[in-house]
Amino acid sequence: MNPMRTLLAVLVLAVSASGCASCSGTGQRMLGVIEGPINDPGNRSLRRSIMAFGLKEFCHEMTTRNAPLKLNEDSPVTGRFYPQTCSAREMSDGNLSVTFGGPGYAWTNVTKKLTFTTSGAIEYDQDFLMEGSTMYAYFKTKKLASSDFRTQIIEQPIANVMNQIAPMADGIGRQLVNSQLSQGFTVIREANGTADFTIGKVDKGKRPVHPYEVRGEDRITYENLRTEVHQNQRDFIGPIEVEDSGRALFFTGTVDGGVAVDVLFMTKSEGEASLKLYLDYPMTGPLSGTPISTDVMQPGVAFKKIVPVPKGLYFIILDNTATAGQVAPPQNPLDDRAAAVSYVAQIGEAP
Predict the structure, then answer these.
(1) Which residues contact 129 (CB under 8 A, 6 or more apart)?
(2) Segment 196-228, tens digit of pLDDT
(3) How far is residue 208's CA from residue 203's CA, in Å, rounded to a whole number?
(4) What does the mean pLDDT of the chain come to?
(5) Is the backbone of residue 243 left (phi > 0), alpha (psi -120 to 50) or beta?
(6) What end-to-end distance do the CA atoms of the chain give, in Å?
(7) What's 267's DSSP letter?
(8) What is the spatial distance between Cα 84 and Cα 265, in angstroms, rounded to a whole number?
């Protein structure tokens, strides 16, 4: 074996065997020191071997995050998919085979709220490159082996009575989800643990466009996006994993559209129960429990909220309904007052 490749393998093995919480960041910085050899096209098999050490974390990452759904990369979030089952294995050719399943929701002007379940199997061609201590991990979809999409709820009452929109809704939802899956994704991972998940490929050295510019390493960014919350709808940001004690959730945002929205923080159990109600019923009702923190984001006013939390999983819910929080949007079916929210959700040291 090439001496440099032997050295790299030893470094990765040493970091992986130590088992400490900061190992991933330490190992990433070590790889950044030898960026040139790591990025050498001839060392692709070694990069795949390094990625194999993190394979066991793939499904953990997949099931402790949501997948924002967009009509295209420049559009706001119009729904989310929440993977609940995941199985990943390395194939004989080095590709990654992933099976997954879970529920989700989307909003269209034809259906209003549309909820669904989907499952499938994907084969990814994976690789990574280093830019200093920043890792660009690429998961290119080689084969979308199967995708089972099933519409669960359509909110539009006329559509449900007439039973004419269901096939169209199924096609819209399936296309929305499959279009995201077929593009693959890029994970831009900083040494501090911040990971930017982006549909498609982002070239090394470039960054996707986000509403907020984030600097420094004192906070881990969970999401930095723009979402659209329509009248009588909610958006469930999470689950957000807080891995240590003495931490806090930081939420910064602005809302356009002339309407205020409630910002609600909930634990994993209460957030998941509220999400299930949102998925199971056409009309949005009360939450399943009491939020740990509530506030109102006023239109055109910079919003900042810090919520100290113990170790665990959490949801941040943006609410544009009259059945939770303090805000009660006007109930005019012909005047959808959507709130366009730009936000960044982060984890950091509690003040």
Answers:
(1) 38, 39, 47, 135, 136, 138, 204
(2) 888 889 999 998 888 888 876 689 999 999 999
(3) 10
(4) 84
(5) alpha
(6) 50
(7) E
(8) 21
